[in-house]
């Protein structure tokens, strides 16, 4: 009976050591959980960005005004019956 108790105790100690100290044990599991939490956080931000871009694409596909606004702001385009005036600062900094 003592022999069986000793073997079971040794097995228990070995399993505990393996659980806490091995590369595939508890330490690795907690590192993986932290990595999963970080990736989920990143995914939340990326999902919000994707939703914003999808809304912009839908708006550009369905509205001529949105396309025109984008062309004006990003490409500097002007309409056919419009005149573009560019105001340049005088650079009045005391003659330098």
User: What does the average pLDDT come to?
Assistant: 86
Radius of gyration: 33 Å
Low-confidence region ranges? none
- Broad structural category: mainly alpha
Q: Name the helix and strand elements from N-terminus to C-terminus, one letter apiece.
A: HHH
Oligomeric form of this entry? single chain
Share in helix: over 70%
In DSSP terms (H or I, runs of 4 or more residues), the helix count works out at 3
Strand count? 0
Strand composition percent: under 5%
Distance between the termini: 100 Å
Major sheet size, sense and barrel closure: none
Looking at the structure, what is the overall shape?
A: rod-shaped
Summarize the structure.
It is rod-shaped and about 100 Å long. Helix content is 72%, strand content 0%.
Descriptive key words:
mainly alpha; 96 residues; 3 helices; 72% helix
């Amino acid at each position: 009976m003592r022999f069986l108790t000793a073997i079971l105790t040794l097995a228990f100690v070995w399993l505990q050591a393996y659980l806490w100290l091995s590369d595939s044990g508890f330490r690795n599991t907690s590192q993986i959980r932290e990595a999963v939490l970080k990736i989920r956080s990143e995914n939340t931000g990326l999902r919000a960005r994707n939703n914003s871009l999808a809304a912009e694409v839908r708006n550009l596909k369905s509205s001529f005004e949105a396309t025109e606004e984008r062309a004006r702001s990003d490409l500097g385009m002007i309409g056919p019956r419009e005149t573009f005036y560019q105001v340049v600062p005088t650079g009045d900094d005391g003659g330098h």
